[in-house]
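Help needed: design a sequence for this.
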């Protein structure tokens, strides 16, 4: 059944057939045919755009149009045909590996950090207290049952934002919990699964997505929106785009996401 949704678009004139997008697509939705990338089936494409940042020619974009629904069962059959690990097994393997890290980070050390109220600016050069209120912060390490998630106001930030924006700590963290990840380098399918679980299992009060202006970073926005749909939750969402020169380019408040 077709409906309007996000799905990839491949510009054949720009595509040079390098195959990086086919490797990056965890669902096996892209093949190289006659020297060009092709979308095998609309039902295999989740519309999250993990392939976008892997295309050196900029030949892949996300568009919203009438398309067949994403079908996870069809994807599993597709991956079996290709001899690739099913997505659900990949999720379980990655999460299990995180749980057994030597540092014990994700579950054993999941904790809420006590912080004073945001401190006033001190003398130039003086150390400023951190406003980080939870640990861990890397999305792939955070268990959906981490105690600091219940009733939280979340900041979901791309890795690079804290380095680009000088006052990231003071601007975004007071009173809120932080999750960070990279929509280009991380396992996007795993992040969608993890965020969907977090949204479904906790009473999240609000979400602010902080991302960079570079095109691949907008994948974090799509990822959060799709995870909200997966969870069937309505949560107020605000998007803040950061420029590579360290400026806040835009902040947009969205209506609560609807399933």
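Sure. Designed sequence:
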């Amino acid at each position: 059944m077709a409906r309007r949704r996000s799905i990839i678009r491949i510009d054949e004139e720009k595509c040079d057939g390098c195959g990086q997008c086919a490797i990056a697509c965890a669902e096996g939705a892209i093949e190289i045919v006659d020297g060009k990338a092709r979308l095998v089936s609309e039902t295999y494409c989740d519309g999250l755009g993990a392939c976008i940042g892997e295309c050196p020619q900029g030949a892949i974009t996300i568009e919203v149009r009438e398309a067949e629904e994403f079908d996870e069962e069809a994807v599993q059959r597709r991956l079996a045909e290709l001899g690739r690990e099913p997505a659900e097994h990949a999720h379980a393997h990655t999460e299990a590996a995180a749980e057994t890290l030597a540092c014990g980070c994700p579950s054993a050390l999941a904790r809420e950090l006590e912080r004073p109220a945001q401190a006033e600016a001190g003398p130039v050069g003086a150390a400023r207290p951190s406003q980080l209120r939870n640990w861990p912060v890397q999305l792939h390490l955070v268990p959906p049952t981490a105690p600091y998630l219940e009733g939280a106001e979340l900041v979901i930030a791309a890795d690079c934002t804290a380095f680009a924006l000088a006052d990231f700590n003071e601007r975004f963290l007071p009173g809120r919990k932080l999750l960070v990840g990279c929509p280009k380098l991380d396992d996007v399918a795993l992040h969608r699964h993890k965020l969907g679980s977090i949204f479904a299992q906790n009473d999240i009060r609000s979400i602010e997505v902080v991302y960079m202006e570079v095109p691949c970073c907008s994948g974090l926005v799509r990822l959060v929106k799709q995870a909200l749909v997966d969870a069937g939750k309505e949560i107020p969402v605000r998007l803040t785009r950061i420029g590579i020169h360290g400026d806040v380019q835009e902040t947009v408040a969205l209506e609560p996401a609807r399933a």
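The two ends are 17 Å apart (CA to CA).
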